[in-house]
Specification:
Layout lengths: L8 E7 L5 E7 L5 E7 L13 H17 L5 E7 L9 H16 L7 H16 L6 H9 L4 E6 L4 E6 L23 H24 L15 H25 L3 H9 L1
Parallel strand pairs: 2-4
Antiparallel strand pairs: 1-4, 2-3, 5-6
Helix pairs in contact: 1-2, 1-3, 2-3, 2-4, 3-4, 5-6, 6-7
Keywords: ATP-binding, Nucleotide-binding
Protein name: GHMP kinase N-terminal domain-containing protein
GO molecular function, one term: galactokinase activity
Length: about 260
């Protein structure tokens, strides 16, 4: 919206012909200037504890690009950002998208499909943060976010609905946060367990329609998956319906109805 604080991430760079080095200078929200230089071989692209978040984002973007496109030539880049780091405002997501777009520019490649680019940038952020919990919607904001436009994103179907923010008698700023009941970072074993559970949920949801025709009904799936998985499936279905209702309310400009859905 026009009254929102203007937050900007700007990346400017060029290819260094005959070089295998990445040379970076930054001017971030803290006002401090930093610089670094490293070779673009795989060993130097691994992130480590204590590295600045922008270095991790750069390495994650390069690794994701190399996995999909091949080699990355040497380049120089300047990063300027007014996004507060580590304050949950999507600064890492914006930076990853900007850096991946730069890599496309210096290699004369382009990812034309928005969903495809969102997924590769999501993978880049996973590599940068060493976490499997990366919100696709944060990446998407940096790809298609536009003043005066609302978009609703379904992470399961990868569908995007857009609507205009018309000049109606309402002012609305909404931030919806997920509850983190576990708190703190997960161990490797916990991450593996969470990944397995998510894969089970996806399998259950993708096959649920087939089980409806079975004489025992969808309840038979409870024999195939743990109780926790089936509870997550039910929760995902409820969330999907909630997103659909929110999208319909926005499209019809029923703001009171939209508010009631949010506070349920």
């Amino acid at each position: 919206m026009s009254r929102a604080v203007q937050l900007v991430t700007l990346v400017v760079g060029k290819r260094s012909h005959g070089s295998k080095l990445c040379q970076v200078k930054t001017l971030l929200d803290s006002g401090e200037r930093e610089s670094c230089e490293f070779r673009l071989n795989d060993a130097n692209l691994c992130t480590s504890t204590g590295e600045a978040s922008w270095i991790c984002c750069l390495k994650g973007a390069i690794r994701s690009f190399k996995e999909r496109r091949g080699q990355v030539p040497g380049f120089k880049v300047v990063i300027v950002s007014s996004l507060p780091a580590k304050l949950g405002l999507g600064s890492d997501s914006a930076l990853v998208v900007a850096l991946y777009t730069l890599l496309e520019a210096i290699t004369s490649t382009c990812t034309g499909n928005v969903m495809e680019k969102m997924l590769v940038c999501q993978q880049a952020k996973r590599l940068a943060t060493n976490s499997c919990k990366v919100r696709a919607s944060d990446i998407l904001v940096s790809l298609i976010g536009d003043q005066g436009r609302i978009f609703a994103f379904d992470a399961q179907s990868l569908d995007v609905d857009r609507a205009n923010w018309n000049d109606t008698d309402v002012q609305l700023v909404l931030v919806e946060l997920n509850d983190d009941t576990e708190g703190g970072k997960k161990s490797s074993a916990q991450r593996d367990e969470s990944k397995t559970r998510c894969e089970q949920v996806a399998t259950a949801m993708n096959t649920m329609s087939r089980w409806r025709a079975h004489p025992a009904g969808a309840s038979s799936m409870g024999l195939l998956f743990p109780r926790e998985t089936m509870e997550m499936v039910k929760d995902a279905i409820v969330r999907h319906e909630r997103i659909a209702n929110m999208t319909n309310a926005i499209r019809r400009e029923r703001w009171e109805e939209f508010g009631r859905i949010i506070v349920k």
